[in-house]
Design goal:
alpha+beta; Trna Endonuclease, Chain: A, domain 1; 2 domains; 300 residues
Length: 300
């Protein structure tokens, strides 16, 4: 499953938010591995990485972003090594690493960086455990697509330079949030404005509207107030996996927001689709697909 269809790069998630996205029926269980550096959820290894600050368990590993090589250096738990089942499954592809990072351990929210690709690893790296005692850990170097847009110029610094992230936008949409910001800013110049307004919640536009399955991109409402439109954005090609994602968002809006009998429909906006997505949408009359062009236009 592509990380872009589960979490949004550059968006913020607490451990609880991640639990609701991956376990929508129950949410994350209390305690256990969910409160440590990483937890396995089916074929995913969810990694909560502190950069430049100790974790909540007082482990202070030298995780950092190498700007020159555009790699992330990440350490496992104390006494972890390459022969353990978790890392063996990472190396052979049975587990996919999803990286969430933060630079402030007082903030419960982590930034989703993306899915990592392992470049190299070393066993026996000296570290301190949560009580300050000497031990060892495994060190991994990874690449993460788009990480240079999300955390540019961060090398062991306590907070991300958000202003430089915004300046990283080039001629196309590097991240979903750039596409999202563009649509919000240019709403009146798109065909969406013919029928819909951006829904306002508590005085603000419903952008990154939080649901039990994570934040949806844009929530709109028809001008006659009879219909909600859930909009999910993908910067590149959208696959059929996004259908389940948007249906969860639509279900939440129907159950929790549409209190006056409003209908709820969905729209997927992406640069392109694939045959599986077309097949999935053929079975749903309530979800529409639209392509964008870099110039920017929405077309059927």
């Amino acid at each position: 499953m592509s990380e872009n269809n589960v979490f949004k790069k550059g968006s913020f998630y607490s451990r609880q938010d991640v639990g609701w996205v991956l376990l929508p029926e129950t949410g994350r269980p209390a305690g256990g591995d969910w409160d440590t550096g990483y937890v396995k959820v089916k074929e995913k290894l969810i990694i909560f990485m502190n950069i430049g600050v100790p974790g909540t368990t007082n482990h202070d590993f030298d995780n950092y972003y190498d700007e020159h090589n555009k790699t992330i250096v990440w350490y496992g738990k104390p006494r972890s090594h390459s022969q353990q089942p978790t890392f063996q499954k990472l190396f052979n592809g049975e587990l996919t690493p999803y990286f969430f990072a933060r630079w402030d351990n007082k903030n419960p929210a982590f930034t989703f960086l993306g899915v990592g690709k392992i470049v190299s690893f070393k066993d026996g790296i000296p570290v301190k455990d949560g009580k300050g005692r000497d031990t060892t850990s495994i060190e991994l170097k990874l690449t993460i697509e788009d990480s240079d847009f999300i955390i540019p110029n961060i090398v062991r610094t306590p907070s991300p330079k958000v202003d430089k992230v915004e300046k990283a936008l080039k001629s196309s949409f590097a991240l979903e949030k750039h596409l999202e910001s563009f649509i919000i800013s240019n709403w009146h110049h798109t065909i969406l404005n013919d029928k819909y307004d951006i829904y306002e919640h508590e005085g603000s536009k419903a952008q990154q509207f939080m649901t039990r399955s994570g934040p949806l991109d844009i929530l709109a409402i028809s001008k006659d107030k009879s219909e909600f439109l859930v909009i999910e954005l993908k910067k590149g090609r959208a696959s059929d996996e996004v259908v389940g994602q948007i249906m969860r968002y639509m279900g939440y809006i129907k159950n929790e927001v549409a209190k006056n009998g409003e209908t709820v429909k969905g729209m997927i906006i992406a640069l392109d689709d694939d045959p599986n997505l077309k097949d999935a949408l053929a079975a749903s009359n309530d979800i529409q697909f639209m392509r964008y062009e870099v110039k920017f236009e929405l077309i059927n």
